[in-house]
Amino acid sequence: MNHAAGRGGALSLDAEALYQDLLRGVQSLHRPGMRLVGIHSGGAWLAERVQRDLALAEAPGTISSAMHRDDFAQRGLSDSGQTQLAFDVNGADLLLFDDVLYTGRTIRAALNELFDYGRPASVKLIVLVDRGGRELPVQADLAAARIALPANQSLALHRDDAGRFSFQVETHQG
Q1: How far from 132 is each of 32, 66, 129, CA to CA, in Å?
Q2: Is 3 within the bounds of a domain?
Q3: Residue 5 domain-assigned (yes or no)
Q4: What's the whole-model pTM score?
Q5: How many domains does the chain divide into?
Q6: Per-residue pLDDT of the chain (174 residues; tens, 9 = 90+)
Q7: Domain containing residue 42: CATH number
């Protein structure tokens, strides 16, 4: 389903409608014993909400990609959250959540962090939006939307106090 609309060339995404599409997709992928893991911060928000909406007993894990990023020297640990996995990764079937898939570098770093904790049996990547522009061979198993944005724009997921999602398109000079 397309939840993007433009007004005068501006992109508008209905993050809540996309989340409902994502939730339906996760319901078809999820199997008993699968573990949810969200990449800090937007992916963690998605995993938490999916866990709640599907009434899954196991709390999702949170993974930080900060220590394995190839641009760590520039980004550092600012607002990177912490990895918290209250289960054994070895042999686990994981659903890995992220908000926006772009170059693939965050996913690569998150997978490296996961493998520091063990060797999962499988990892399926679930993203709210795939915006293309891949620099690494990474593909989502489930994406609620696929869009194109210019390289000087980024898409940021926000969560309000009630837990509702929204997107903001940010333009960067450069």
Answers
A1: 31, 22, 9
A2: no
A3: no
A4: 0.90
A5: 1
A6: 444 444 445 567 999 999 999 999 999 999 999 999 999 999 999 999 999 999 999 999 999 988 886 764 554 555 568 999 999 999 999 999 999 999 999 999 999 999 999 999 999 999 999 999 999 999 999 999 999 999 899 999 999 999 999 999 999 886
A7: 3.40.50.2020
